[in-house]
Description:
The complex is a heterotrimer.
Chain A: H1 2-26, E1 36-40, E2 43-44, E3 48-50, E4 56-57, H2 59-70, E5 78-82, H3 88-93, E6 99-100, H4 108-111, E7 114-123, E8 125-130, E9 146-150, H5 154-163, E10 168-172, H6 175-183, E11 189-193, H7 194-201, E12 210-212, E13 220-227, H8 231-246, H9 249-258
Parallel strand pairs in A: 1-5, 1-6, 9-10, 9-11
Antiparallel strand pairs in A: 2-3, 3-4, 6-13, 7-13, 8-11, 8-12
Chain B: H1 12-41, H2 46-61, H3 64-76, H4 88-118, H5 121-129, H6 134-149, H7 151-164, H8 176-186, H9 191-220
Helix pairs in contact in B: 1-2, 1-4, 1-8, 2-4, 3-4, 4-6, 4-7, 5-6, 7-9, 8-9
Chain C: H1 13-43, H2 49-52, H3 54-57, H4 59-95, H5 100-115, H6 118-132, H7 140-166, H8 170-178, H9 183-213, H10 216-221, H11 229-236, H12 241-273
InterPro entries (chain A): Bact_solute-bind_prot3, SBP_3_CS, Solute-binding_3/MltF_N
Pfam family, one (chain A): SBP_bac_3
Domain Solute-binding protein family 3/N-terminal (chain A): 35-261
Amino acid sequence: MKLRKSGVAAASAVVLALTATACGGGSDSGKNDDKITIGIKFDQPGLGLKTPDGDYTGFDVDVATYVAKELGHDAKDIEWKEAPSAERENLISRGDVDFIVASYSITDERKQKVSFAGPYFLAHQDLLVRADEKGITKAEDLNSRKLCSVTGSTSAQNIKNELAPKAQLQQVGGYSQCLTGLENKAVDALTTDDTILAGYAAQPQHEGKFKLAGLSLSDENYGIGLKKGDTELQGKINKALEKMVEDGAWDKAVKDNFGPANYKNESAPKITETS
Amino acid sequence: MFDFLDLERYDLLGAFWVTVQLTVYSAIGSLIWGTVLAAMRVSPVPLMRAFGTAYVNIMRNTPLTVIIVATSLGLWQTLGVTLAGGTFDDIGFRLAVLGFVAYTATFVCESIRSGINTVPVGQAEAARALGLSFTQVLRLIVLPQAFRAVVAPLANVLIALTKNTTVAATIGVSEAALLMKEMVENESQAIFLVFAVFAFGFILLTLPTGLLLGWVSKRVAVKR
Amino acid sequence: MSDLSVLYDAPGPRAKTRNILYTVLFVVVMALVVWWVLAIMADKGQLAGEKWLPFVEDSRVWTTFILPGLLNTLKAAALAILIALPFGVLLGVGRLSDHRWVRAPAGAVVEFFRAIPVLLLMLFANQAYAQFSDIDPETRPLFAVVTGLVLYNASVIAEVVRAGVLSLPYGQTDAAKAIGMRKGQTMSYVLLPQAVTVMLPALVSQLVVIVKDTALGGAMLGFPELLSRVQSITANYGANTIAAFTVVALIFVLVNFALTSVAHRLESRARRSRKGTGAVIGEDPGSDVAVPVIPEQPTGDGAAVKKGAD
């Protein structure tokens, strides 16, 4: 008689699962015209960060909000979606997001799958070091040093393959873990785009602890990723970006987000992505 | 279609070789530490039993990622434990093995303990009647029989371990999963095929292991 | 050998004093290790209040990050086990079938899905759902995570079921045949109900594995489960990685411990209620019992020795 009981349990489990499916699948497929979905990073201070209040802050967020406004969407109509690096192309090509502003460097490989607007920022790979560090002034200095970066990232690959093949490179799951190693003097520098580094250095908890080394180890042109071949949206976004630079909102966004880090940013780049 | 698979740029075989090495070292370590843990859990000393129980319950209930990160972030980056130093790659590899051993040993321990359960009571009673001590009973009589009963469960643990080595990528050990992350970053146009290549690699590693050890388990089983 | 104290004699007076000595030594060594760890952490500033206090003082850490993450983890795990269980039973029974055309495909499915890392199964599922279905993008990561977990765990459960049924004495099948039961009836009325008791411990440990494996969906699929919230917390509170990982790990241990405790209570009740049937459980070492009879977990009184389970 046991079995009858477990049979019932199994059956109800299936029913539960099916209803769950039905609920999930059917919900608001009719898209509201005012709404716009934008992919950003949720865990990068200075670029795209979800705060404990549930708000979003950062340079990418400011750019995205400005562009959305120019496209006719109020800030409150924006739906933010987390865009992990591995998912960015998929989010765009599936139409899950309207566009992505997530420290997204323009590369030829990526252009096979998505189109870009912009660039809206020129970042460089750089190093974050402890405030009292004096020995790192050029890329060659790195060969005897201990570096840290995120597993598989472009910055990590650059170090391994070109910049400093002899440097010791620790790869971890997130930049915060590198910071812990840096604090504890287990590593000498954290390397990735200077925007991300400036975002961390600008945090109140890190005041006076870290500084940027100021080496420009690579050029990263941040673009706004959008559906491949959507030249109409691309043109609109490019126009919005140009306007943002002209009316000073761009400078203000840079200052707001990276200011405390004493970060010398490049001036706004020329729009190149026109098809 | 397979343009993305640039074997000069991506050392696919090398990455899977690291996976194999991680698996082998961790398997040996887990077998030893797991057996010691199992012995602790059945030992006459209450303290050892308590330690074994607490250890197994905590380790088994913690996500492997947390354990692996703890070896790197806690042991190395904070406490300065490098396990004989060397380059970052060596340290990372050894710490990953340490983490896998700490985690996998709990599963080995539980398998062996259930294996001990399959040995008839009379065996241990006869051994004690002969005047053998606890360690002798375990070493000479019980464990040899228990091991033969648990080859199949241990094979499952080994397969799980092989796949779990992918977690080592989170602390930068350059095994298969790390290479996969690099390829995902660079070859986003062929992301689905990248996954497929790595899935196939793991099938090549784990399927034969499972089949071989399944056959062995039937050969060595104690007929009762 | 269910009563493990048969392995040694009852401790005499000398053994008892020795045990006390060991205990004292062990406690001292442990205390030294803890002191050493804390001293180094304090020295490196890892015990600073700003790193740990947010978890006590700022309730938003919990309401914005940890609790929603925990909810997602539990939701994915619950769906996965509820769906994987019936599939697993079907596959397991399928592998025991007398018909080759049922047995072979069931076996192939089980072996195949056991061989691929769960993360890859999740990534495939995510891709497939995106291309061939119109599931809402908001819930798609959940579907992908659950699908990956179901595919893998159904095949593990299939093996557990098969081992459980094979561990029953052949007399049970013979007796069922003798009273004229058909094969399906034998399986569903005689074998499976008895096998459930043997299987319970293995099913429980599988449940724990599922809870932990939801964490795989965090980093690469963007499924907002508990472990991936560490990234968001540390980004907001000044890279307090050690504190954040410690808190999240503690939550995982507590949740899983609660799960195993409940399950073990169920298990011992199941065993008690079947006392009369006299089925021989766990006595057949020839079958490949996946994770066979795990004795009751002691709940902290140090009594690791299992007292006659059946």
